[in-house]
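Reopening this ticket.

The earlier resolution said the output was attached, but the attachment link was broken on my side. Pasting everything inline this time so it's all in one place.
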Amino acid sequence: MKKDKEIAIIGGGAAGFFTAINIMEQNPFYKVVIYEKTNQVLTKVKVSGGGRCNVTHACFDPAELIDFYPRGKKELRGPFHQFMTFDTIEWFANHGVELKTEADGRMFPASNQSQSVIDCFLNACKKYKIQIELRKEVVSIDRKDNNFTIQFKDNAKIQVDSVVIASGGNSKKAAYDWIAKMGHSIISPIPSLFTFNLPKHAITELMGLSIENAIVTLKNGSFETDGPLLITHWGLSGPAVLKLSSIAAKELHQLNYQFDFSVNWLFEHDIESVIELIERYKKEHPKRTVLKNKCVNLPGRLWEYLVNESFANTSINYADMNNKELNSLANNLVAQAFKANGKTTFKEEFVSCGGVDNKSIDFKTMESKVIPNLYFAGEVLNIDAVTGGFNFQSAWTTGFIAAKSIAERN
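Inline output:
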């Protein structure tokens, strides 16, 4: 066995580190070096999940899990049979990081600190003597005589036996130029997780308010999601909105993020049942004022906002409510209309739709179909998921498979 075989990992993020560590665990004779273009590694791991790192999601059926991936669904079916959620849980437990499951299925380190994951990776790198080189931006990669020559922006040049590209997603197609020059097609990247901006809308006065379960629907009804919803100072966010932004990423991009959508604040109710509910309350409590007496289970501030949106005179009693006002209130409760004007993405947690065309990758090994001994892992591929730990799971899965393929090759 060739003991000095060198593997270059391009990208110091989740997929890059996971691939590097798993290569060395399966074949300790290799030399593995991680090359990161910035001056920090694992930055996305650090900020993910509000600084807690949403490692994965408690979904244990591959057929069910793939439905959380708007891009990559078909390609990930096989890989999830190789390395699945329970494998992730076991892997981290074996490396000293116990995971806990929250009510919504998201899984975090028991410590509630992303630093636990970062320390796990850095300690493993130290144990296996995996080098980490910072400020190493790749300019080009050429393959000749079964070796790769990597040219960096600082004019440094190295030769290696195999390369794993785990450079993550990017908002600009130009960032993939060095990969395109190697013969891989690039799907133009666009954002796939973002909030809906509602500039100067009255609802932003309720910033910080969260709803446990709401339904968000695009105007044409082609896309609909549900889940927790958060009101912010710029508009609407939370899992329900982020999921919708992911599954409808291409369509919303084509609309230049100017689009109509509606919110059902009551989740389990439709218009007919809400009208019935209001009429019953009106009959039982005719003298109560509408503004100060909720007939549905909603936060008080949200109820008052919806009443103000529905009535010209908010001081009226239920008995004085006419049919037009009743219908207006019911509509705002289960189908309040909004016009989004733009989006907000968070640079540190940016997830892109697009990247290296999946057709050029063998997902059984994560090896390029274009160039032998070139592998891909993580968000550099045209794979993205809804929020909830799924993007990290695809990073662990593709990274593990790439590592296994490399470790077993020679």
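Reporter confirms the inline version is readable. The mean pLDDT is 95. Residues 194-344 form one domain.
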